[in-house]
Amino acid sequence: MEITHRFITTNGVRMHVAEQGAGYPVIFCHGFPHTWFIWHNQLASVAAAGFRAIAPDLRGYGQTDVPADVESYTNEAVIGDLLALLDDIGAEHAVFVGLDFGAALVWELALRSPERVRGVIVLNNPFAPRPPRSPSQLWAKAAARHFLHLDYFQKPGVADAELAARPREFLANVYYSLSADYHYLDTWQFPAEGTGYLDVLPTAPPLPWRWLTEAEFDTLAQDFERTGFTGGLNWYRALDRNWELTAAYADASVTVPAYFMYGDHDPDMEGFSGRDPLTTLRTYVPDLRAVTKIADAGHLVQLERASEVDTLITAHLRELVPNPSDVPA
Q1: Nearest to 104 by CA among 65, 73, 143
Q2: Nearest to 302 by CA among 45, 23, 12
Q3: Could you give the C-alpha distances from 292 to 126, 180, 273, in angstroms and in order?
Q4: For residue 198, which of 230, 248, 161 has the smallest C-alpha distance?
Q5: Which of 10, 54, 143, 147: disulfide with 84, CB 3.0–4.6 Å?
Q6: Backbone phi, then psi, for 122, in 5-degree steps?
Q7: Cβ-Cβ contacts under 8 Å for 216 (sequence gap 6 or more)
Q8: How would you label 237-272 residue by residue, b for 16+ Cβ within 10 Å and e otherwise?
Q9: What pLDDT score does 1 carry?
Q10: Three-state SS for 180?
Q11: Model pLDDT, residue 329
């Protein structure tokens, strides 16, 4: 089974989709700065298990359109793309897998359209209820003490220019910094004033790494060399608008079946998910069926520990869909 590629028009956006296998659909949602390719190991294993593995370039990334306005990057807008993708393949529902922004996306999809979600499998970014204040207010307070990429990315054009000027250097440094081979929160040792993202990131060792080959890195980097990073950065700039659009879900729980796995060195679990993220997750996700900590892994756990993640995802899928040839239509 080879990976195939095609384009569909969803919600006014031409979206690139990579697919492998046949059977019940499993849709993978990536984060920043990624493309569909971040899931290539999982596509192969899920397809081999009898499922139809689907990984789109989400809007703003890769070969998918890059809308100009920030409003186009809300979870509500991208959920429209995912539902249109389901309609395109003739599926009533699917299992959704998410990491980073993709995790927040599938959590919100499960809140907004639970009837289209058989279950969710989330990596590294646990569900948390809507905060009482807009995200940018929280980030500005933290940025008064130290550099914080969440705040830095809010300034239109600034990070865009910095990262686009040195795309391969940025990608190598940020991937390395987010892995178990580095402690990402060391970037907080730098002041925010007059500091760019490349100033705070460590210098990555030469490729290949134990979990990323030169060919894999080249595949990821080539898209960003062509597109730049503005599409991905606009996801950060839409987070306040996401907060506004989810007022009706402030105290809502995710009711679909859910599975969560995380790297034991993941910086989001350490510094961005609250004081007790697993207790919060269990409180607001009543049908949480498994939580697995993966040793010696950071934020890119699906690359760093591909075999373990593949095994977990396929096991969870078999529990959710015992007969993957039973395709919903």
Answers
A1: 73
A2: 45
A3: 12, 16, 16
A4: 161
A5: 10
A6: -120, 140
A7: 37, 40, 303
A8: bbbbbbbebbeeeeeeebebbbbbbbbebbbbbeeb
A9: 76
A10: coil
A11: 52
Q: CA-CA distance, 311 to 42, in Å (whole number)? A: 9
| Per-residue tokens: 289 | 């069926």
Nearest in space to 47 (alpha carbons), one of 66, 29, 23: 23
Q: Tell me the two tokens of residue 97.
A: 């897998």
- pTM of the complete model beyond 0.85: yes
In angstroms, the CA 103 to CA 178 distance is 16
Question: What's the sign of the alpha-carbon dihedral 235, 122, 80, 239?
Answer: negative
Strand pairing class (94-99; 25-29): parallel
Render pLDDT for 188-226 as a digit per residue (tens, 0 to 9). Answer: 999 999 999 999 999 999 999 999 999 999 999 999 999
Tell me which residue of 25, 61, 71, 67 sits closest to 46, measured CA to CA: 25
Nearest to 258 by CA among 319, 176, 322: 319
Cα maximum dimension of the chain: 56
Tell me if 229 sits within 8 A of 33, measured CB to CB: yes
In our burial notation (b when 16+ CB lie closer than 10 A, e otherwise), range 71-93 reads: ebbbbbbbbbbbbbbbeebebeb
- Is-contact 237 73, C-beta < 8 A? yes
**Residues with catalytic annotation?**
100, 299
Say if CB 35 and CB 66 are below 8 A apart.
Answer: no
**167 sits in which H/E element:** helix 167-178
At a CB cut-off of 8 Å and minimum separation 6, what does 202 contact? Answer: 173, 176, 177, 182, 186
- Over the stretch 116-143, which tens digit does the pLDDT of each residue have? 999 999 999 999 999 999 999 999 999 9
